[in-house]
Amino acid sequence: MRKPSFRKTLILGAVTGCLLVAAVTTDRVAASAAADRLADRLRCAGGLPSEPSVAFGGFPFLTQVARGRFDGLRVTAAGVPAGRFRVGVEATATGVRLPEGEAVRADSLTATITVGYDLLRESSREPGGAEPSGPAPIPGGPPAGFTGDVTADDAGRLLLSTTRTMLGREVPVTVVAAPEIAGTTLTVRPIEVELPAMGLRLPATRLPGLRAPRVDLPALPTGLTWTGAAAGPDGLRLTVEGAGLVADTRPARAAAGGCGGAA
């Protein structure tokens, strides 16, 4: 009598397992398909050179669709237009709710905007190669007299290569600077200077003529705030955070009309 009962339990367990696997697979396929559609529309509406990476967080996805609220949404995009340059953007939103009338809502948003060091070098010159006549258009523009490369150290500080005239000769100098944000102003504050040829490392105040460039950052939508800046291996990283966000979807819907529709 025990053997048939054991067989039934085994069969029931196998069927249940298969149903669970099928349900999970269906859920993940639906999430992947939705992410692909959103990525295509973001590429088209944003004029991006390639599709961004889009991923929905939370499980199950289909339950989130049914209630019109997504636990998490992560978007990573390269080549996002920013004036005459393109930057990288990585954003994560939680508690995203489908449009209610003309608004899409999110409980929180964290984004990192990466400005490549090649763009920082370009920003130190006007189009056509002329010397800049005003503040650098890209955040983190170099100190006065900058002529060389921009890199980063392990502490998130900028390393700016330049030269200075000392004792009648040009010597290479590396300026160690900290990118800082206060309100809507980004400051690149020189901290130290290195003189490799002399084996010296001095406070920045010991090198005359250095300045701390200040750049006015663009205004952000209501609820978002510039929160930090740091030098990374791939460029200067500016962070943005916000909570209780409400965004008007009408411009996005108008753009989506030519990007596969708004549905």
UniProtKB/TrEMBL annotation:
Domain of life: Bacteria
Positions of region (Disordered): 123-150
Position of the signal peptide: 1-23
Keywords: Signal
Protein name: DUF2993 domain-containing protein
Native source organism of the sequence: Actinoplanes philippinensis
